[in-house]
Amino acid sequence: MPTYKEHGRADAEVIVETAAVIVCGAIGLDTSGESIPYIAGWGERNDVEAIRHYAETVDTIARTLESAVA
Known about the structure:
It is built from five helices and no strands. The chain has helices at residues 4-7, 9-26, 32-42, 47-53, 55-69. The chain starts with a helix and ends with a helix.
């Protein structure tokens, strides 16, 4: 799991929240009204760039969470 020490708070928040959006979407929950602005608010850099940079980490977390809720 990402830590603030490893990634800094802003990137860790982007990573974990993006994974949560993926999992919530997979089970039919729409969190875009809350989560997308939250993720964007944490971007020290462009949030899309941060998501791309950490895509593998986000995917690993999302798959782990999806397995837990399935």
